[in-house]
Amino acid sequence: MLDIGITKIMLIGGIALVVIGPERLPRVARTIGTLLGRAQRYVTDVKAEVSRSIEIEELNKVRQEVESAARDVHQSVQSGIESASEALDPNRDEDHPGPSSGESEWWNTPTPAYKPPRKNWRVKRGAMPQWYKQQQGVRRHVQSAAARVARHRPRPARPF
Asked: Which NCBIfam families match (predicted)?
């Protein structure tokens, strides 16, 4: 790639000093430094984006493999269950695969959807004892900002 040694850098610096001049050289050097920093950050960002996309592709391949394996396991378990149920109940009617003699299908009953408990923070705050609120510094009464400032303002000394 670029093989730049200390002698080449000194040679480039000497030529820049002669061409640009000592007054503008620090400003030009700062500008070149910021441009090189931007270029390095851009290259780093591009490398990170490429590696991220490669990782995403690999993860998608792994996910597809796991999903296909899960489907295969599900199908084999399902076929095993069907063969076992046929072996246990050979008198079962193929037109009506439901339970015989009034049995209930407890495995086919739908489960109710999860409903999170209602959280009422006012009730929780009211359940705390007053001594605990005082110890922890929980405000028990609402005050306006002006009232708080007036409460904490130092009082003037009384004349004798």
From this structure: tatB
Q: Could you write out the DSSP letters of every residue in 70-95?
A: HHHHHHHHHHHHHHHHHHH-TT--SS
* Rounded distance between C-alpha atoms, residue 119 and residue 67, angstroms: 37
Percent of the chain having pLDDT more than 90? 30
57's CB contacts (< 8 A; 6+ apart) are: none
Sequence-ordered alpha helix ranges (H) in 89-158: 121-127, 130-136, 145-152
Residue 6 burial (CB < 10 Å; 0-12/13-18/19+)? Answer: exposed
Higher local confidence (pLDDT), 99 or 52: 52
pLDDT at 109: 74
Q: Distances from the Cα of 41 to the Cαs of 24, 29, 46, 47, 55, in angstroms?
A: 26, 18, 9, 10, 21
Q: Residue 92 is encoded by which pair of tokens?
A: 């079962």
Averaged over 59-78, what is the pLDDT? 93
**Domain spans, the chain:** 6-87+122-150
